[in-house]
Amino acid sequence: MAYRVPVETRGKWPTSQLSLKLQEPCLTHPEKTTPGAVLCETKNKRSDRRRGTALSLSKGPNAAGTGAASVRWVQGFTNTNFSFINNQTVCYPCGNYILFLDIETKKTTVLQCQTGQVGAFAANGNSQVLAFSDRKLNPIIYIYTFPELSQLTELKGNAQLDYTLLAFSFTGPYLASYSSIPEFALSVWNWQENILLCSESQPGVTVTSLSFNPMNWQQLCFVNESSVTIWHIERNNDEHHLKRHPVKLPDGQGSASPHTDLFFPVSHSEDPYHGPDLPVSAIAGLVGDEAETFMPRNYIKPSVHPTAHCWSATSEIYMSCKEGYVLAIDAETHGVSVLQQKPPPEYIRKISDVVSYVRREVQKKKGGIPKDLQKPDLFAMAFCKEGLYAAGSGTVYTYKPAHSGEAVKLLDASRSCFLAADFLTPGNKYCVSVTISGEVQVWLLEDGTCFSKLNLDTEASAMACCPSSNSVAVGTKTGQIYFLDVTEVEAPRVVHRIFLSKFPVLSLHYDQSGQFLIARATEGHIFILDARPSKLFQVLGYVVMADEVLDLSVVSDFKNDLVEVVILLNVAEVQRARLEIFCLSSALTTDNDKYVNEQGMLNANAIKKEQYDLDYPLSSAVRLKDNIVYGYCTCAPFICKYHLSEENMLEDPSVFLSGKRTPSNQFGSGFLCLSPNSRWLASAAKDGVLFIYHTFTMDILARKHCHSYQGGGIRSMVFSLDGKFILVTGENDGALVCLKWKKIKKIEVKEAAFHWQSLLAILNNSTSKENVVLKSMAEWQFDPESTSESLPEETFKEAPLKSSNVEVTEEDGNVTSLYSASTNDMTWIGQKIKKVIREETQRFANQKKELQMGIKKLRKTIQKMMHENEQVPDIEKLDQQEFNLDIEEQVRVQAEAEQEVARVRKEIEMENLANCYLQDVIKHECWDAMCVKGRAVKCFHMACEVKNYPLKERSEKELATLEKVLRLKKIETADLKVQKKNLEIESETVLPKEEGEKTEDVMVDGSASYCLIGSLSSQYGGDTSTLYHQWDLHTREQKVNQIVLLKDIIYKVKTAFNKEFDVVARQKEQEIARVKERNLRIREILAQLDLQVEVWEPALTDDEIPERALTVQDSEIKVEKYLSQQEREKAEMLAKLEMERRHAAMVLKDNERLRALNDMMGGVLEVKKEDILKMDIPPPPFISEPEHVWNDEEKKIFREHEKKVKELNEEKEKYRRALENELKKLETSIQETTQNFDETVCKLSERKVKLEMVIYQEELKIVNLVYALLLNEELDTREAGLRNFLMKKEKEKVKTARTIQTTKNKIEAYIDTCENAIAEEKNLECGFTKQFAAVPANLLDELFQLYKHRPKTPMTKMLLDAANPYGERSGSAEDYKDALTLLMKAMDELDSPEHMPNGLDPSVWERFCLARRNKMESEELVKWNALTLAEMQAFLQRRMDDNEKIKSEIEDIFQELTWLQEEKMKLQLNLTVQFLLKQGQVELESTEIPDYTDAILINKSIIEELNCSIMAQGEKKIASMVECKEFSKGIFQLEWEHKKMRMQIEDLEQKARDIVTLPISKDRQLFLTVLNYDSHIAHHISAMEQTLGIMDKLHKKNVKNRQKRIKELEKCISLKEQENYELSLELKEMLVSVSERRHIFEAADTQHVSKKIAKQRYREILKQKHLRGLVKEQEEHFEILQAEVERLRSRTFPVL
Fold this sequence. Notes:
44% of the residues lie in helices and 21% in strands. It has 26 helices and 61 strands.
C-alpha cells in the first residue's frame, strides 16, 4: 500500500502544499519522438543516448525568421506542484516548461507550453499522462502522454481567465479542474473522449487543494482555506451530476459543535405579550438568500484552517490544520473526528527556539555554516514499499532503509528565482547563475548538469563573470561585492569581498578585456574596480551621475586601449533620454592617484565625459564601435537607431534625432543586449518573448517565447563568447533557459568563431596568470562579528552619535577616534573619508594643540564665572545656557525651541479648533435647535428643583403629517357618526326609546372614562378626542396614525407644563427683585445700627440661567491669558484712559471748598433723620476741669448739656427701636414670600410628577404600538423569506420531478436493451448445437464443456501486475472496455491449439473459439447492462428520496406559513389595551395570577345592554311558554282521543278482513274438531321443548369441540411460529452464504439453476394462491352456517 502523507508547511510556504504521489513499479515504454512537441533532453556524463530524442523546434507564424534558436536545457523550480509520472520520473512545472527528471539516470526532458506560462498542473502515474493549462484568455487544458510527450487532446471549457487546480482520478479517464474568477467552476472531464461530464459553480470560493478518492473516483475532496467539501459524482448511464456535501469542521479549540438551523428553529414558543419566537433573519429584516445563510456574530465560531490532506484505503480523509490538529473525515457520512490535538504550548516552543538559537550561534563561532541552514524545510512526504520520499524547498530526497539507510538527494533545484547568469571563460563549457537568495550554481553548458553550489547567505542583486580569469563577481543589496574563485567548477569558493557603499549594487559589467569591473549602485553611483585578482580587485574610483541611471553598457576599444562606458540617464524635466559616455584607460590602473581626488572620485578630465540628449525616452541603450547607438523606447514599442554625429542634431545642438525606428512587436518595458561580436542585437521585454536582430539590417534572426508575461517577462539574458549559446532568466517564473542556435548562416557562425578565437588569443596570456593568482588566494572567512546586514546601518548611524559626545577636556583628543572601527566594518567610501580626516589631523596637529590650550583657559574662565553666578541672588542669576560660548549651538537650540513652541502652539490651535467645532455642533443640536431651552427652578429654602421640558421646533414634515392624520381622523369620525345614526334608526324599531337613551348615556360615560382611554393626558392639556379607540387599532395605518397623535399629545402636554413653568420662573425673578429691594433697606438699617450681620441675598443659579454656560467669565480662566498684538494695544489704551480718570479725581480732591464741606457736615448742607444715630453733642470745654472749679454759668451750661444729651439718647433709642422693628418686618416679609414661592415650586414639582406619569402612559402606548408594528414587520419578513424559500424548493422539486421522469423513461428504454442482450445471449447458447451439428457427439460434448469453461478472472492479475494498492470499481464504459480487453487477453491461452480436443478439425476449432468469444462478450455485455441498470435504478431511488425530502420540506413550509397567518390574525385581533386602575381596586385573594389566555375584553355597556335584552326576552319567553303549555294540554288530550278512535277503527277493520279472508288450515280444523285443544297444544309444546333441549346440548357439545380444536390450532400456530423463527435465522445465514457465493458463480453458467429456482418459486406462489382461495371459500361457508344458526335460533326462540 502506498500512502501520500502531507507534512505541515514550515518556513516561507505557509499555504502552498506540494503533492507527491508515488506508485509501485509499472511497465515502462520506449520513448518516442513526437513531431510538434517542443521538448529537449539533458543528461549527465554517465548517461548515454539510447533514449535520446531529437530537438523539435517551435513553428510560429514567421517561420522564415523564427525558430532559429532552440531550447537546449531548462533549470529551475517554482514550488507550485510536483508529481511522479512513473516510479522513476518526477515532473514539475517551471515557467513556460514542464521538466521531467529521471531519478536513476538524472536525465531531464523539457516540454514547452506554446502559449505561455504553465498554469495548473497534474500528473497520473497510473496512466502515465499529464495535464496542464495555459494562462491566456479562455485557457485550454492540454493532455500529454509520457514518455512519448505527444498531445492526446485539448479540453476547452468555459473558463475565461485561468485554471487554479487540476486533479486526475487514480483509475479511469477522469480529470477534475477548478477555474478562478469569474466562474469559480468545478468541472469533471473524460479526457479520453474530450467530454465535459458535469460542472458546478462556487462563486467566490478560492480552492487550495483538490483530489479524487483513489478507492472511488466518484468522490472528490474540495479544500479551501477555511472549509472542506466532498463532492459526489452521481451517474445516470451517460449523465453525470455533482452533489455537494459540506463538512462541518471543528472550531479553533478542536471541539465540534452541533449544527443549529437558524432559518428553521426547532420550536415555536409563543408569548402572549412578546409574540411568537421568530428566527434571527426575520428579526434582522433579511429576505432572500441572505435570510437563509445569515448568522449573527455571536453564533460564528472560527473553524480550523485545513492545509493538506490525503485519502486512506478505507475512503477516509486525513486532514492537517494550521492550528496543529489532524482530522479524520468519513467520505460517506461526512463526520469529523480529531486524531491529534494541538502541539506543545507556546512557551515550550519558545524555549526550544532559544536552545536552537544558542546552538546556531555556537556553530557560527566555530566558523561553520549553521546547521539550521543545512536542514531544508519539508512540505510534502510520501511512503512507498521501500522507504520514504520527501520534498523540500527545491529539493527531493529518497530514504530507503533496506538499501543504504541514508537520505539520497534526487533533485536539488534553486530555492528562489534566478537573478542572472553568465558564461565562464572561455565561454563554451560552463556557465554560472545566481539566485535572489544568494545561491551560486555552476552548470555544464552542454546538458545543464549542476556541478556545484555555493550559498552566500545574503540577498544578491547582480552577477557577472570575468573574461580575464575564472572569477565571478556577485553584488548584494547591502552594497557588497563577493569575488568567487571558479577555477575548480566542482568547488567554487569566496576569495574576497569589498564593501563599496551602503547603496545596493544594481548591476555589474566587465569589459571584454577583463581589465575593469563597473558596478552600478543607486543614487547615481558608479564604481570602477580593477577586475584582476592580481590587483586584489582594487577599487579605482567612482563617479556620481546627476540623474537616475537607467542602463549601463561597456564597449572595449582594443586598438586605443580604451574602455567606453555608456550610461543611459532618466531626465525628469523632459520626456527624453540622455546618454553620458566616459572613457577608461589602462593608465587608471597603474597611476590611480593621478586620476582620482582624495575621496576616491574620478576627475572629470581623466574620464573625458561626453553628453548626448536623445529625442525619445529610452529604457535601455547599447553602443556599437562606430558611434551607432540602439535604444529601446518606452513610450512606443520600437527600437531607435542613433548616429552620434553633428549632422543628426536638431536646432538644439544637444538633441539627436533617431535615424531609424524598428518595430519591436513587444509590450512592456524592455532592454537590449549586444553579442560579443556586435553582430546580433537581442531585445527582451515583459512579454517574455526574445527577439534577436542583425545589427546592420535589423532583420529578425530568431524569435523565442522562452518566458511569459504572467511570470514578469525576462529579467536578464547574455550571449556566450562564441555566440553559440544564450542564457535567459525569467523575472518571477524561476526558470533559467539555455538556448542554442539551430538555423543560422555559416558566415555568421564563422564571424562569431573568429571573434571568439581572436578574443581568446588576447586573453589567454592574462587568463592563465590571473587564474594562478586566483587559485593561490586564501578563502575568505565569514566574520560573525561583522555581518553584512548590520554594516551600513550601524556604521553611519553611530558616527554622528559619537561625534556629539566629544568632550573638550580630553588631553590627547583626536578626531580620528570617532572612526576607530576596523576597515572591514567600513565601506570603501568610509575608508576614504577616514584617510582624508587622518591626513588633515596630521597636517594641522600644531594648530590643534594651540586651540586645545586656548579652550582649556577659556573653560577655566567660564567655570569661575559659573561659580560666581551661583553666589549671587536668584534675581541676578544667569541661565545655564547663557554660559554656552558656542553661538551656533545656542542659535540652533533656540531655533529648535522656537520650532517646538510653534509646533505646540499649532497643536493647541488645532485642538482648540476641534473643540470649537465640537462646541458648535453640540450647541446647534442641544441649544440652537431648541425652541424651548432646558432650564430649572429651585426653591429658596428647600432642596427642591423642577425642570422644564426642552422642546425642539417641529419640522414642516412632522406638522404636515400631523395635519394629514387629523384630517383623516375627522373624516373617519364623521363617517362613524353617520353609521351610528343608521344603527340608532334601526334599533329604535326593536328597543323602546327609553332603553336606547340609557344605552347612549352608558356609551357616553364609557367613552369619557379615563380607565378606557389609558391615560390622564386630557387633564393636563392633551386632547384625547382625536385619538382612535384602543379597540379599533387593527390595521397598520391606524397604529401609525395613533403614534403620530400620541406624540402630538405628549408635545402639547409638555408645552402646557412649560407655560406653567415660565410663570413660576418669572415669579421667582420678581421675588428675587423684591428681596433685593428689601435687602437694600436692611443693609441701610444694619449700617445705621452698626451691626455686622450677613444679609441673605438670593440669586439665580446656572441651572436657572443656562445661558451662562455659553459664556466664559474671566474668573474661570486660571492661566495667564494670551493677548494678541491688537488686544495688547487695546488694553494699553484702556489703561491710559483709567489713569486720566484717576488724575481728574485727584484734582477734584484738591478742591478746598468741597474738602471743608466734607469735614464739617459730611458733604451735605442739612441733617437727615437717618443720621440721628450718628449725631453727638460736644461737651463744654470746661468738662476737663474739676467740678468744684466750675462757676454757675458753667454749671448751668453743663445741666443744659446733660439735658440735651438725655433727649438725644432718648431720641436715638426710639429711632433704634423703630429700625429694629422695621428690620424684623422686612425679614419676616422676605421669609413669607420666599416660603410661599417654595410652596408654589413644590406644587409645580408634584404636578410634574403627575405629568411624568401621564407622559410615561402615552409613551407606553407608543412603545406597545411600535412593538406591534415591529412584530408585524417581522412576521411579514418571515413570510416573504419562507415564500422565497418555497419558490426555490418548488423549482427544485420541478427539476427533480423532471429528472425522475427522464430517468424512468431511460430505465424503461434500457430495460429493453438489457432484455435484448439477454435474449441474444440465450440465442447464442441455443444455437451452439445447431452451429456445430456436423461435429461427432463425443467431441460435441467435450466442446460444450469447453464452451462453458471460463478463464480465471483477470482483475486480480491486473492489480498484482500494476501493484495497485487501491481497488477497481466497475462503472464506466472505459472500465467495461478494459475488463473485456483483459478477458480477451485471458482467452488467448484457452484458444491455443493445445487445448483443442483430439480429432477435431482446426477450422472447427477456430469457429468454436470465435463462438466462445462471442458468447463471453455477450455475457460481459449482460453483466455490464445489469450493473448499469442497477446504477440507474439507484440514481432514480436517490432522486425519489430527494423528491420526498423536498415534499416534506414544502409541507413544513406550508404549515409554517399557515401558522404565520394565524399569528398575524391573532396580532390584529388580540390588541394590547392600556387601563388606568386605582390602587386597591383590583384585589386578589392569593398571589397567583389567574390565567386570562381564554378571556375576552369587551365594554361594560355592551354587557349591560345584552343583559337587559336577555331579561326582556326571557320574560316574554316565560309568558309564551305558560300559554303554550296550557294550550298544548288540550291538544294532547284531543290527539290521544283521536288516536284511540283511529286504532279502534283499524282493529275493527282488520278483524273484518281476517274474518273474510280466514283460510281453514289443519290447526284451525283441529281447533274446531278437538275438544281438549289446550291440552293438545300443551303436549305439543312440551315435545318441542324436549327437542330444543336436545339441540341445545348438541350445540354446546359442538362448541366445546370447536374450542378444543381452536386450542390445538393455537398450539400448532405457536409451533409453526417457532419453526418460522428458526427458518428465518437459517434464511439469514443462507442469504449471507448466497451473497458470498454469488460473486463466485458470476462467471459460471447459472442460467439453468436460476430457471429451476424460478419454476420452484412459481410453483410455491401458485400453491400459496390456491391455499388462500380455499381459506377464503371456507370463511364464506362458515359465515353462511353461522347465519343459518342465527336464523334457526331466532325462529326457535323469538323472545330472545
